[in-house]
Design goal:
Layout (H helix, E strand, L loop, with lengths): L2 H20 L15 E6 L6 E6 L3 E6 L5 E7 L29 E6 L12 H4 L7 E8 L2 E8 L2 E2 L3 E2 L3 E9 L4 E10 L3 E14 L15 E5 L15 E5 L14 E7 L8 E7 L2 E12 L4 E12 L11 H13 L18
Length: 352
């Protein structure tokens, strides 16, 4: 081999290394489902700003300023490579009104407050309270991990903002669908809530209707460590999960999605509460809830693991029973600290 050819080979290798480590945005074509590292796309400004975080060929999450910086979009790219089905939105509640939609994949809701029933992530924040303080920080952007942080206060329709409460939620997102969540609730004055739904999964489900069927028999099947599907348990379950069950879901929604999701609270979380379910037409919630009482100036931190899953992937698990969910939860209980990224990973900081 000549010196010239060796030099050319070295240069090509270095170029590919920089392309992967730099940002990975559209530089490499990766076979769907095989996984190809993390990508982050920050676009727009003000209330039109969005931040999309994607594991190539596996999943995409989109944070939106218009949703008070919640995860307003989730796509299963393994079985929906063109990202046609948003699994967490539009998130209509009482009415099919976009200005009060609440498409938060990881949601928080407050009952018995003034104003009552505000949601941390809701489009009402942009429609009715565009000047309510909110921020989104990109703390780390590397092929092996993306870390982002959302800061905002809960809002309820056109009624008002629970400005005494600020939630700072940090997401450590990995290519294999593991998302470590660190949530810090802060209050200025003393604050109570008859129920704080501290960790809520919001799942789009066209089969969900009133009256509520218990337990789930179509669409998203909400389940726990001890019940599949979940009906009721008086004690707190160590984890909750949901998956789409095609075998019992009638057309035309039989194959609406093949995704699944797991939420595991860290052991020892303060004010964790117990699990509960709630339905709207076209939408299902699965959550942990507890009464809240905070002193003036107090902060309250909680940690979770959220694992994204689907069918037909060699990377993402198919979370449809406790045999799959249990070992993931056990690993998190053993070590709830987000794993470090490889030392060669490129980190970019963008605080906004």
């Amino acid at each position: 081999m000549t010196i010239t050819s060796v030099t050319r080979k070295i240069l090509i290798t270095l170029l590919l290394t920089f392309m992967v480590a730099g940002n990975g945005l559209g530089q490499l074509r990766v076979k769907p489902g095989s996984g190809g590292g993390m990508q982050l796309v920050d676009s727009g400004s003000g209330l039109k700003r969005t931040v999309a975080v994607e594991s190539t060929g596996l999943f995409r999450l989109v944070f939106e300023a218009a949703d008070n910086w919640g995860i307003a979009q989730w796509y299963d790219l393994v079985n929906d490579p063109s990202a046609q089905t948003n699994l967490t939105g539009p998130g209509y509640g009482v009415s099919n009104e976009i200005s009060t939609a609440e498409p938060g994949l990881f949601q928080q809701v407050f009952y018995g407050t003034k104003p009552d029933d505000p949601k941390l992530y809701t489009r009402a924040a942009s429609y009715y309270f565009p000047n309510s303080p909110r921020a989104f920080n990109i703390l780390e952007n590397a092929p092996s991990r993306v870390v982002v942080q959302a800061i905002s206060s809960p809002v309820v329709s056109a009624v008002g903002v629970l400005s005494n409460v600020t939630a700072e939620v940090t997401y450590y997102i990995y290519p294999n669908g593991k998302i470590y969540i660190h949530s810090v609730l802060r209050v200025v004055q003393a604050q109570t809530a008859s129920e704080w739904r501290c960790a809520t999964l919001g799942l789009r489900d066209p089969t969900s209707a009133q009256p509520i069927a218990v337990p789930d028999s179509t669409g998203w099947i909400r389940s726990t460590a001890t019940q599949n599907p979940y009906e009721y348990a008086g004690a707190a379950e160590s984890y909750i999960f949901a998956y789409w069950r095609a075998s019992t879901t009638p057309a035309p929604y039989t194959n609406f999605t093949r995704a699944s999701i797991l939420l595991v609270p860290r052991r020892g979380n303060p004010n964790q509460g117990i699990q509960g379910r709630h339905n709207w037409s076209g939408w299902k919630r699965f959550f942990y809830g507890v009464p809240l009482k905070m002193a003036a100036g107090q902060s309250l931190a909680q940690d979770y693991l959220m694992q994204l899953g689907t069918q037909g992937s060699s990377v993402l698990p198919n979370i449809n029973n406790s045999a799959v969910a249990g070992p993931i939860a056990k690993d998190y209980f053993t070590d709830p600290t987000p794993p470090p990224v490889p030392t060669k990973a490129t980190t970019r900081l963008s605080l906004r």
